[in-house]
Amino acid sequence: VQLVESGGGLVQPGGSLRVSCAASGFTFSTYSMTWSRQSPGKGLEMVSVIYPSGSRTVYADSVKGRFTISRDNAKNTVVLEMNSLKPEDTAVYYCSRWGQRSPTAWGQGTQVTVSS
Questions:
Q1: Residues near 84 by Cβ (< 8 Å), separated by ≥ 6?
Q2: Strand pairing of 32-38 and 91-98?
Q3: Digit-coded pLDDT (tens) for 46-70
Q4: How many Cβ atoms are within 10 Å of 21's Cβ, its own excluded?
Q5: How far is C-alpha 83 from the chain's CA centre?
């Protein structure tokens, strides 16, 4: 199982960024996928979940209306589009495969920094 995130970087407040996760080594289309984030001094926060078919998504209140999760089961990728970014969105963003009750695989993370 391998999850590889990409697309992080530095963006100004109010800007947009897109992070992607490429999955391999398992049947991607049968798993829910999540994006989580962790910033210094804070715990891990799950920001979004997308169900296997992509028909259902869930967002944390902190990102609702600003972030959009999507997946392409043909390409084994899951994407998080982030708009209206705030300094408090600064974190390392992780992609994970969701098992029955918890994540069962994690990527290495990609840094997102929101700063002027």
A1: 14, 16, 66
A2: antiparallel
A3: 999 999 999 999 999 999 999 999 9
A4: 25
A5: 13
74 CB burial (10 A radius; 0-12, 13-18, 19+): exposed
Q: Side-chain half-sphere of 3: how many Cα atoms within 13 Å?
A: 25
Q: What's the mean pLDDT in 80-100?
A: 96
Measured CA to CA, the distance from residue 21 to residue 7 in angstroms comes to 9
What does the pLDDT read at residue 100?
87
53 within 8 A of 108, measured Cβ to Cβ: no
Per-residue tokens: 103: 């994540």
Tell me how far apart the terminal alpha carbons of the chain are, to the nearest angstrom.
37
pLDDT tens-digit map of 4-15: 999 999 999 999
Query: Which of 8, 98, 18, 92 shows the shortest CA–CA distance to 57?
Result: 98
CA distance 16 to 82: 5
